[in-house]
Automatic annotation (TrEMBL):
Keywords: Membrane, Transmembrane, Transmembrane helix
GO CC terms, sorted: membrane
Positions of transmembrane segments: 20-39, 45-64, 76-92, 104-122, 129-150, 174-193, 200-220, 226-243, 250-270, 326-346, 358-379, 385-402
Protein name, per record: O-antigen ligase-related domain-containing protein
Organism: Pseudomonas syringae pv. maculicola str. ES4326
Entry-linked Pfam families: Wzy_C (PF04932)
Residue ranges annotated for the O-antigen ligase-related domain, each copy included: 211-338
Lineage: Bacteria, Pseudomonadati, Pseudomonadota, Gammaproteobacteria, Pseudomonadales
Keyword Transmembrane helix: yes
InterPro entries the UniProt entry points to: O-antigen_ligase-rel_domated (IPR007016), WaaL-like (IPR051533)
Membrane topology: Multi-pass membrane protein
Length: 415
């Protein structure tokens, strides 16, 4: 009896510790994402994220099978294979800039990031977290636009300047308009999805409408055309995915607002035609010309794709996630990346996995990530940040589909 009592106490203590760690993890994920707006010291933000998100996730991964087993299930195998391969390249490819230990740390962090998403989805917390983050992001977008209209230029929307920061102190300063557009684009797509599938009260619906409008207007102000493309395609896909009278109503409203915006902002929009591909075509042509040098084993993990055009403009990356990944990890790495993307994409279209509250949001967010990867970001193996939010968040949501039912069945069995 004594051994049984001690065993019960250990299980009870583990359950209590797990509960507190999970609560800390939820707060940590919220702080991590919102901290991209409000934590201006990068090292401080990293420390906070490590202590409140990644450390609790690591402990949960180690102390209980109910936390660990879902991440070893079949749908995660392509992602695990990709991460293991990147570590091997960092260890074995002499051209790698990143050490094997550093690459292992990045792979572990990605695993913990996806684990945190899975656990929040399976316990019906993720939607609440994303709703809160949507409101925070929308408020930051609105404040940024308002600040620039009032304090910088009352005609800012027609000035042709590219917006990427709040303007006050260093808050919500992404230092690059494309990065800013990617961050706000994620929440714009999420907000449209929620309006399509949720029947909120009039007050909440108004908040979401104003939020989507603020986020969309901010993205216009970044003049990031690749993000515009991904944003429009993701919203269109979300409408098609929920093809009913409600989605058609929102589509009609959106089309009307878009037409009005195009008319009012046409001078700036027409100016974007002269920018062309912003030298991306030259960079991609050079990538193709060098293909024979790296196609088999890759140039090495973290290796920069250096190119100078007319000895005036120099770049250190291929301005395309797929080309940059191929350059660093070779043909096998490219196949593993595309294989993982294909597996996740097919899973996102599985009708049988759409019963959970976030069962359909992964598809438009993933489409947004895939299209913007063609033009606007080049790595997803770096430190946690905006690129992770764009790429790994939808992957985590899609791979977590069906986990809610799995947890309930486990609880019923244990009861």
């Amino acid at each position: 009896m004594g051994q049984l009592s001690e065993s019960f106490q250990r299980v009870s203590m583990t359950t209590t510790v797990s509960r507190y760690l999970f609560c800390l993890l939820v707060a940590g994920f919220t702080i991590h994402v919102s901290g991209m707006l409000f934590i201006t010291d990068g090292s401080r933000g990293t420390t906070i994220s490590n202590l409140t998100l990644f450390l609790p996730a690591l402990i949960l991964l180690l102390i209980g099978r109910e936390w660990r087993d879902p991440l070893l299930s079949r749908q995660y195998i392509p992602m695990l294979a990709l991460l293991v391969f990147t570590v091997l390249v960092a260890l074995l490819n002499k051209g790698s800039i990143i050490k094997g230990s550093e690459q292992f740390k990045a792979a572990l962090y990605i695993m913990l990031y996806l684990g945190a998403i899975h656990w929040m989805v399976s316990r019906d917390v993720m939607e609440k977290v994303l709703n809160l983050l949507f409101v925070i992001a929308a408020a930051a977008a609105f404040a940024s636009i308002a600040y620039h209209l009032v304090m910088v230029d009352s005609h800012y929307l027609l000035s042709g300047d590219r917006l990427f920061k709040l303007g006050y102190e260093n808050y919500a300063d992404f230092q690059n308009p494309i990065v800013a557009a990617l961050f706000y684009g994620v929440f714009g797509v999420y907000g449209v999805h929620q309006l399509l599938i949720r029947r909120y009260s009039c007050a909440v619906t108004l908040v979401f409408c104003l939020g989507v409008l603020s986020l969309s207007l901010y993205m216009y102000c970044t003049l990031s055309r690749g993000v515009w493309l991904g944003y429009g395609a993701a919203i269109g896909a979300s409408v098609l995915l929920h093809n009913d009278s409600r989605s058609r109503k929102w589509l009609a409203v959106s089309a009307g607002v878009l037409l009005l915006a195009v008319i009012l902002l046409s001078p700036v929009l027409l100016e974007q035609k002269v920018r062309g591909l912003s030298l991306r075509d030259v960079i991609w042509s050079e990538w193709l010309a060098r293909l024979g040098d790296f196609w088999l084993i890759g140039a090495g993990a973290g290796k920069s794709f250096d190119i100078c055009i007319a000895n005036a403009q120099c770049f250190k990356q291929a301005h395309n996630l797929y080309l940059q990944f191929f350059y660093e990890y070779g043909i096998v790495g490219a196949i593993l990346l595309l294989g993982m993307i294909g597996a996740v994409f097919v899973r996102s279209l599985n009708r049988g996995l759409r019963a959970s509250p976030l069962g359909t949001v992964g598809f438009p967010l993933f489409l947004f990530a895939l299209l913007t990867a063609l033009f606007d970001y080049h790595t997803v193996m770096n430190r946690p940040g905006v690129y992770w939010l764009v790429f790994w968040l939808p992957i985590g949501l899609i791979l977590s589909n069906g986990s809610r039912a799995h947890v309930k069945s486990q609880q019923a069995t244990s009861a």
